Amino acid sequence: MKIYVDYDDCLCETARSFSELALAMFDKNVPYEEIRFFELDKAFELDENQYDQLMIRGHQPEVLLSYEETPGASEVINEWLSLGHDVSIITGRPFSSYEPSRIWLDDHGLKDVKLFCLNKYGRDSLIYNSDYSLELEDYYKMDFDFAVEDSPKAFKFFNHLPNLKVLVFDRPWNSECTFPNNNYTRCNDWDSIRKIVG
Predict the structure, then answer these.
(1) Reading across the β-sheet that carries 114-117, which strands appear in turn?
(2) What is the mean pLDDT of each run of 10 residues along the chain (198 residues)?
(3) What is the pTM of this model?
């Protein structure tokens, strides 16, 4: 099987870190459990300049390397790899964050997964001098059986795969979203994802 896995808030606890950064940088106290929007400027009530600063800081190598693993992620992905499944990490992070992102994966026992940086959210203007390792036209030529994703804004990237099973990692910002069709299943943790993929 071919499996797509999003990076932030599927593999690691990015939003928890951004919540701490928003408090430290701008005195915006929004605990992780109260993050109601995927768009962090909206979630933390930041102006354009503050959002810019937050995204730049959040993509610094030392910050990327500090993110805690989402419990069970590397264990389940390594099980899939041992069974011969093809796993691709497809992140909206810019390619400038590729090296620390790759190191994080390697440090968490995920040396055999492929990592692609796809411009999912048009953030290239926020991370200066950035580009991406995977263009949309090439992404749309890829095929997957399952996808693990937390962002409702990313659902549109699955429209070309009518048989794809999308496992939506339950997060506060997607708790009230409407799924596009019956191929979408809410999953509370990696154990429930494991049971569905088999």
Answers:
(1) 114-117, 86-91, 2-5, 146-149, 165-169, 184-187
(2) 98 97 97 95 96 94 97 97 96 90 96 90 52 80 97 94 98 96 98 96
(3) 0.92
